[in-house]
Amino acid sequence: MIYWSELYKEITDRIKNNLPDVRWVDLWHEQINYLTEELPFPTPAVFVGFGTRETDDAGTLVQNLTVQVDLRLFYETFSDTYDGSANQDKALAFLDRLTELHALFHGKSGQYFTEMRRIDMSREESGDAGNLYRISFECLVTDYSAQVLFTEADMNGREIEVERASAVTPPNSGDNMFDTNI
Fold this sequence. Notes:
Layout: H1 4-18, E1 24-27, E2 45-59, E3 62-75, H2 88-105, E4 117-123, E5 131-143, H3 145-149
Parallel strand pairs: 1-2
Antiparallel strand pairs: 2-3, 3-5, 4-5
């Protein structure tokens, strides 16, 4: 992997291509807590988040990362889950999507990640907004970004010339350092 966006796109493409009932896939930015301010989205929705749990240097500017991938499934429904409710099947469809997410990733690998394994699943607080569950997976990712995006120049045999510059005069205490007319 060179960019985190590669890992994100691989995961979101897998969700979009295999779970047609999921209507929205996005990077997790706590959108559920800001429903009135955020771009409206249809549900069920899956939000993807990343965290590094462990790093191991694997060579010059290369690291093996143990990554936690959090998939948050958000589902708005007015249906009831209690036994005998008229719309129980519709309400329990949320649990089916949760199971499908698990099956889609647990024990599976991809181009940018090794075999994922589920490490946690739990309900998260969503206020009065709906059902929000998080499934967390762990996988290994090899990060080549520093090696590929950083180039080191060989300065052997080159001369470096240092010039003395005039001192910069600090602004008066009343002058603004930044343009405030924006």
